[in-house]
Amino acid sequence: MFPALGLFQSLPCPEKPHCTRSNCVFSHRPDLTHIPVTPVPVDAPKPASAPASASKPTASKLSASQPASASSASIPAKRSVSSPLRAAGPSNGSTSNEPPRKFLRTGPPQRPVAVPSGSRTSTGAPVLRVSAAQSTVAIPVRQAMLKTMYDHFVVLYEKINPANPTLAAEHALKQEEEVYQKSSKLTYRNAMISSVAALKKRPKPDSASHPSVGTDAEILAREEMQKKMQSLKLTASQLEPYVLTLDELKQWGYITEIPPGPGGDRPHEEGSIKTCERCTEKFVVKRREEADQCRYHWGKPFSSKMNGEKRRVYTCCSRTTDEEGCETGPHVFYETNSEDLHRRHAFTHSRPAHPDGDSALEVVALDCEMIYTTGGMRVARVSVVDSAGKDVLDEFVRMDEGVEVIDFNTRFSGITAENYATAVLPLASIRESLDTLINSQTIVIGHALDNDMKTLRMIHHRCVDTVVLFPHQAGPPYRRALRSLTKEHLGRTIQAAGAAGHSSVEDSVATLDLVRWHLLNGPKPKPKTAPSTT
Q: CB-based contacts of 515: which residues, under 8 Å, 6+ apart?
């Protein structure tokens, strides 16, 4: 037996007169008075009410001489103890037994989301890296279906795979995730088979911007956005809030007034000494057949950190800025001073509107391609589309008298010697053609439009520029590339020809669509002073 702790020694024994236990846990001291306990039958009915005075026995009603037998003693019933939450009750005053609202789960049950990683096998097939506990479908099943999806994307993209080697894997991962999110454990396999069957029916794309490129959700979103944008016909009243003011034109590098001097009095610098735009060395300006060669980087330098060391490397070859160039080409020069540009070919204002009827359009989008010449960088192709995206002008430009080509800059301009051989009209004639489409009231849309206006030698005050509509996070003078904006907002890939260069028609349409997208999805413009016109 365990030793007694004496916890009941302060209580009188209920069987004190007749207790026969040798080691009773209760006290048998004569000075302690016994309190009789009246037994309550288990099945006895509860009284309807009792007076407050009867709730507790008083000292006068207790008799010390009253005997208490073992049969008459009973253990008092335990009081019911409520939890603090139950005792407090609902805050809204109701008598519900539910726990407080802050402990209730609200909303539909959340389905675990399995996010795939970008890991790939040695064959290029993607590997699904997800937690088995988070996936409602067995991981081996998903991986097998993903491999099937990837194989069909490879077949679909066979023409564009060399230029985009990771595209099939990326889209297979996204497509599998889209199917998984829309299906259950029982329907997943059939949904994937249906998705693969639909993939087989797509026409094979010949460029990364083809409508067949992308997952089902991406293609559907592009189609919906394209329908919205095509139905949106841009008008001058819609674009008026986005037209740059005179101060904004100056801030973004536009030439707003004709520079001093006669203009066009020195069309070229052949035989002069200039600083090379590519390698920064001094050279003598010579035409293409006689030009001296230099080594340069055609990409842009950017900051990179390797092994904890920060350094500047080029986007074209990942070499550092102090290493030798990765490409060979002729020395060229580029001018930005307005007076120098004016001496090569004179600036003129866009023509005023005719009061008795005008052939000019209300809204156009414009883009130019430039090449290097003995007269600096000059325009070699001009493309204009109307507000519906229809091509209304696309011409190659022949250089002015005495100006010779040094480099066609094909990687960026897309212009080759064969293209240039078809050029008939010089810049002055091209400007006359532009006058039939653009007057001083026409709103001209472009990306980094100040460069196009400079090379056209045109001064125009009603411009909408997508570098302003979609600003760089670092602010001006930094600008986002048209290619990245088009990919991000339109889901379209442009300028994907690599060394074959850009297309000014493609860039014009992309710029126009970016403005449409901004009108539908972008922030509302802030009120500003109307721009001055000429």
A: 234, 239, 242, 365, 445, 464, 466, 469
Q: Which residues neighbour 271 within 8 Å (Cβ) at sequence distance 6 or greater?
A: 284, 285, 286
- For helices 167-182 and 139-156, angle between their N-to-C axes, nearest 10 degrees: 130
Count of C-beta atoms within a 10 Å radius of residue 412: 15
Predicted TM-score of the model (pTM): 0.66
- Residue 157: closest CA among 147, 149, 146, 168: 168
Token pair belonging to 197: 């069957």
pLDDT tens for each residue of 236-275:
999 999 999 999 999 999 999 999 999 999 999 999 999 9
311 φψ region: left (φ > 0), alpha (ψ -120 to 50), beta (else):
beta
Q: What are phi and psi of 439, to 5 degrees?
A: -120, -175
Q: What angle do CA 255, 261, 263 make, to 5 degrees?
A: 75
What CATH architecture applies to the domain 236-261+348-521?
Answer: 2-Layer Sandwich (3.30)
Say if residues 514 and 486 touch (Cβ distance below 8 Å).
yes
Domain boundary assignment for the chain: 1-34, 132-224, 236-261+348-521
Task: Please provide residue 165's backbone torsions phi and psi, each rounded to the nearest 5 degrees.
Answer: -65, -20
Instruction: List, for residues 131-141, the tens digit of each pLDDT value.
Output: 889 899 999 99
